[in-house]
Amino acid sequence: MKFAPLKSTLLAEEKEIHDLERTILTHFQSGNEKGMVLLYKHYNQSLFGIVSSIITDEHLAEDVLQEVFVKIWGNRDKYSPDKGRLYTWMVNIARNSAIDKLRSKNFKQHQKTKSEEDFVIGFENQSFTPINPDTIGLQDVVSKLKDDHKDVIELVYFQGYTQQEAAEKLDIPLGTIKTRLRSAIQKLREIVN
Q: Of 3, 43, 56, 63, which sits most exposed with the smallest number of CB within 10 A?
């Protein structure tokens, strides 16, 4: 029974986390200001990680994080423990807020007017290397698809359009976009295998 102390330690930590979550939830749902303080103290780093993985500009990510906490607090009456954990609900708000910011006209305009120096500094601060489809041979594989499938794959996967935006750009129904994507992905699997 070497592992009994470890197991009891883990159970104690799990109970402590559960108790903390319950305390935060109680304050949060009652609208008590302490709830906001506890939320921020215990979740700001993980939510910032989610936001900054989508928005690489640190200052903008911090602004979005602040907006996220305002949304969370303002929508606390919409949270239901029956539908899932508070953390999961907050993660979805953070992720969606960051994506909305990327799609906003202000963000796109900001990106266009950003100086070359800011671009270089921002690029050097990124902790990942973006994948270029050409360097891994993906463009060659996609080029073997029918033109209508290539267009949809290009817009949705390479240019970041939503399916709805791709439908509007190509002036075809959303259902057709979905069907073409499914067909194209199936065909890509056949080509690769």
A: 3
